[in-house]
Design goal:
Layout (H helix, E strand, L loop, with lengths): L15 H8 L3 H13 L4 H14 L12 H18 L12 E6 L7 H12 L3 E4 L6 H11 L3 E5 L6 H4 L2 H7 L7 E4 L8 H4 L3 E2 L3 H13 L5
Parallel strand pairs: 1-2, 1-3, 3-4, 4-5
Helix pairs in contact: 1-2, 1-3, 2-4, 4-5, 5-10
Bound molecules: cobalamin (B12).
Length: 224
């Protein structure tokens, strides 16, 4: 059900009611619209990428360093969370899974909506995801990777200053004997950079692209 190939509506117009409800921050209406799209045959991937991500991109000018409308953005954030609950009603905390990942937004970055979606997508695929939350020190994330036996470390980054934190991950993993554990990055600020520039193994375009990469890694298939 997560794949992009479904019989449901796929045009931008089909997602306009979702975009409209999101932009006014009406979380109840938004959850109802998302539910209807799912019932019409849309995949979760379409709702996230064509709906949520597209709409959030339209909020760019309300969330810059110069101009910042906190209340409006927070209402939209709450609305995004309501859609995530519609898409993943079973929650996200399997204690056993096909493999374990650790995920966080690193120190200095408080954005977590995208990270939460990644966690849900992976949990929906049967993986165990240990979420260290946002504003997380590099050492805490690496410590969790060691403690939990993680097979990959995932990092979400939305603001440019967090790039320097991401570059500290690989040396910190190496120092703990975890040089073999891959690092996967995503989020608006990180996906503008190539893996070499971040010193990570893969930069995901979106949650589903990241999940495909991780599926291949866990199954031992060569990276595409
Ligand atoms: C919502 C928002 C906020 C909310 C965050 C609420 C929350 N709980 O997350 C609040 C109001 C708190 C906020 C604060 C700020 N924000 Co803001 N914010 C946004 C906004 C509008 C949307 C981000 C979002 O949630 N998108 C929706 C999610 C679903 O998308 P996503 O995160 O990209 O995630 C998807 C994929 O990228 C992927 N993904 C994400 N992470 C990962 C990780 C892995 C491993 C994988 C596989 C995939 C993956 O999966 C998701 C689903 O596909 C963006 C604009 C934008 N276009 O991104 C600005 C934006 C990120 N913010 C920005 C700024 C400047 C700020 C502030 C500094 C503003 C200020 N004046 O203080 C503060 C930052 C404070 C801090 N220290 O962190 C800038 C950053 C610019 C830059 N390059 O540095 C942006 C780009 C706006 C802009 N155009 O200037 N913000």
């Amino acid at each position: 059900m997560d794949g992009p190939h479904t019989s449901g509506p796929s045009t931008g117009a089909a997602f306009q009611p979702l975009v409209d409800a999101l932009l006014v921050g009406d979380h109840k209406l938004l959850a109802a619209v998302a539910q209807r799209l799912i019932e019409q045959g849309c995949s979760r991937e379409q709702v996230v990428t064509d709906g949520l991500e597209h709409a959030m991109g339209l909020l760019d000018d309300k969330c810059t360093v110069e101009s910042f409308n906190l209340l409006e953005i927070m209402l939209v954030g709450r609305a995004v969370s309501s859609v995530v609950r519609v898409l993943y009603p079973d929650g996200y905390a399997p204690t056993q899974g096909r493999a374990t990942f650790v995920i966080a937004t690193l120190e200095g970055d408080v954005h977590d909506l995208g990270k939460n979606i990644v966690r849900m997508v992976l949990a929906g695929k049967g993986f165990r995801v240990v979420d260290l939350g946002r504003d997380c020190p590099v050492d805490d994330l690496v410590g969790a990777a060691q403690r939990e036996g993680a097979v990959a470390v995932l990092v979400s980054g939305l603001i440019s200053p967090v790039v320097s934190q991401v570059r500290k991950l690989r040396p910190a993993l190496r120092a703990c004997g975890l040089a073999h554990v891959p690092v996967v990055a995503g989020g608006a600020a990180l996906k503008q950079l190539r893996p070499e520039a971040l010193d990570v193994d893969y930069v995901a375009e979106n949650a589903f692209d990241g999940a495909h990469y991780l599926e291949r890694h866990v199954s031992g298939a060569p990276a595409a």
